[in-house]
Amino acid sequence: MRTLVLLGIVGFLAQLVDGSLGMAYGVTSTTLLLLIGTNPAAASATVHLAEIGTTLASGVSHWRLGNVDWTVVRRIALPGAVGAFAGATFLSRLSTELAKPVMAALLLSLGVYILVRFTAWGTPRDNLGKPLRRRFLAPLGLIGGFVDATGGGGWGPVGTPALLASGRIEPRKVIGSIDTSEFIVALAASLGFLLGLGTAGVDLAWAAVLLVGGVLAAPLAAWIVRHFPPRVLGSAVGGLIVLTNTRTILDSGWVPTAPVVHTLLYALVWTAWAAAVAWSVRAHLADRRVQRAAEPATAEEPPPVRAAD
């Protein structure tokens, strides 16, 4: 019962992050599952099984709001499914001793990216351009799907920034298209884990609790995205992912170091994390001051005086 409660909290927190940033559901939930001692392959399999439900609901919502570019979905989803299936099969065949540090290294890389991405550049800006081409979307989907399955997350962190950086699709359709195509990716990854691990590798109750936690968090996530600065939240979550996966790598003995080195590395991560959050808060406050200064005067001008007939 205690494990189910913890998993419900994991799903709740992961959805808060994903609903506020448009990415990092898999990275956050897999990191927290590893933190409570879950097997790496089982953690990724459980998260992707839960994501079949969450991404389906998200995709339908984006479709109804007109936030989906179906050309992008068609061109990125199939390569993403191929990459996810290959990644799931690869991770299923690794030993637990090797899989844990490998997954932690991937999650650490994604955590560093999220930390730097939101600290340095903040939230995406609207920048439209030419249509996206298949020769760009196909490799992006293949890489994103493989990273997503082997790292327990990464479809959003890999796909969303690349589409935004291309400058050829508006941000709302970037998020909607990535979320919608992720349903196919999660389905393919789950199939790969099912073939690689069998039914014994996935706990359906865990996946169900993760799903329920995510559904409960969705309304609160919508409130957070309106009232809490995404830039600050991204820096905070990125630092958490970096810290937890640094600990996993050091504890695994994959990189043999003296205890004093562990202490210095933890101190470095904590210092960098605190500095990043402080910088994001400062940048957010500066942006608010600029926005307020640019707002037009609220005082209404008096109506014009009509000339006498």
Automatic annotation (TrEMBL):
PANTHER family: MEMBRANE TRANSPORTER PROTEIN MJ0441-RELATED, MEMBRANE TRANSPORTER PROTEIN YTNM-RELATED. This is Probable membrane transporter protein. One of its GO terms (cellular component) is plasma membrane. Keywords: Cell membrane, Membrane, Transmembrane, Transmembrane helix. The keyword Transmembrane helix applies. It holds the Pfam family TauE. It comes from the Bacteria. Belongs to the 4-toluene sulfonate uptake permease (TSUP) (TC 2.A.102) family. InterPro entries: TM_pro_TauE-like, TSUP/Inactive_protease-like. It is a multi-pass membrane protein. The chain crosses the membrane at residues 72-91, 98-116, 136-159, 180-198, 204-225, 232-250, 262-281.
